[in-house]
Design a protein that fits this description.
Blueprint: E1 2-7, H1 10-21, E2 26-31, E3 36-37, E4 44-45, H2 48-55, E5 60-61, H3 68-71, E6 78-82, H4 90-93, E7 99-104, E8 112-113, H5 116-122, E9 127-134, E10 144-151, H6 158-183, E11 197-198, H7 214-223, E12 230-234, E13 237-247, E14 259-263, E15 266-270, E16 275-282, E17 290-292, H8 293-298
Parallel strand pairs: 1-2, 1-6, 2-5, 6-7, 8-11
Antiparallel strand pairs: 3-4, 7-9, 9-10, 12-13, 13-16, 14-15, 15-16, 16-17
Helix pairs in contact: 1-2, 1-6, 5-7
Length: about 300
């Protein structure tokens, strides 16, 4: 099968790696987003998909906006899209002879859109899925070819859930390609009920509001790790929180945001309802190392002691 692949982040690179190992895939070209400045804005950084494509000597395209003319030179059976980062025009989607297929990390039609993994954790979903669908003009509205479910644990961050979903997605993609090769392409329309949208995560959503329920703040911290990472204010400091767990509450009268305990378990903090252990912290000092356990208990953090209040 003659395939053009479009994707950008590490999640997409995992799927490209699976295609490279699949003997029936003839990868004509790989498309990814143009290089972007790193976090400090000084050096242009290639995407994980670009790095993998170059390491295997694959033809690479990085158009600012993918257009049908970019694909005109290729005789394409399948266009496979995984977290590419652009909405594709109908003319682009019409280029492959068989279909344009998208690997989407949600149980469609739930969580159509840009941030399905983070939104599923934020909402407290207990299960998500990999949905492989035929792309059409609408936002993740196309018919579903196959779906594989995945549980969400109380300990999952978006990072760990992406890892689980990548493994499932790679296996599902290759199995689907085998089915298409031997039996043709079949699909079913998405349900018209249960539709939700996974809007892009905004930086403003990373600020912790201690008036919220402990369950929600815990999900917020897990959903935003490893990026953009939830944070709390403490005086002039912005402290990034990488992991948390809901605590068995102790009876105490304290305002939301009050640090109740500092130990190897982390910082126990009072919420609007319930209490939360912040188990992994990143301080805006030194090398910005994430600390946990004994390192957190022994860390000399000015003013961060029981009785102090986070903002």
């Amino acid at each position: 099968m003659r395939i053009v692949f479009a994707g950008t982040p590490a999640f997409a690179a995992d799927h490209l790696a699976a295609l490279i190992d699949y003997p029936e895939a003839n990868i004509l070209a790989v498309i990814t987003q143009p290089d972007k400045p790193g976090k400090r804005g000084k050096r242009l950084t290639p995407s994980p998909v670009k790095e993998l494509a170059q390491s295997h000597g694959l033809t690479l395209l990085q158009p600012p906006r993918l257009q049908a003319k970019d694909l005109a030179a290729f005789d394409i059976d399948l266009l496979i899209v995984v977290a590419y980062g652009q909405i594709l025009s109908p003319k682009v989607l019409a280029q492959p002879k068989i279909a344009a297929l998208n690997v989407h990390a949600s149980d469609l039609p739930r969580w159509r859109g840009a941030a399905p993994v983070q939104r599923a954790i934020l909402a407290g979903d207990r299960e998500t899925a990999i949905s492989l669908m035929i792309m059409e003009a609408g936002l993740d509205t196309g018919p579903v070819v196959t779906k594989t479910t995945c549980s969400i644990s109380d300990d999952d961050t978006s990072g760990s859930l992406f890892t689980k979903l990548a493994a499932i997605g790679c296996e599902t993609l290759i199995e689907t390609l085998e089915t298409i090769r031997t039996s043709g392409l079949k699909s079913v329309d998405q349900s018209t009920t249960g539709i939700t949208y996974a809007h892009k995560i905004e930086k403003s959503e990373a600020k912790i509001n201690w008036m919220q329920h402990a369950d929600y703040i815990g999900r917020q911290i897990r959903a935003l790790a490893p990026d953009p990472v939830a944070f709390m204010g403490f005086g002039d400091l912005r402290i990034r929180c990488h992991h948390a767990a809901v605590a068995d509450p102790v009876l105490v009268e304290a305002a939301p945001g009050t640090i109740l305990e500092k130990s190897k378990l982390g910082l126990r903090i009072q919420c609007g309802v319930g209490q939360l252990w912040i188990t992994h912290l990143q301080l805006p000092t030194g090398k910005g190392t994430v600390v946990s356990g004994a390192a957190l208990a022994n860390a000399q953090i000015s003013g961060i002691t029981p009785g102090a209040r986070c903002q």
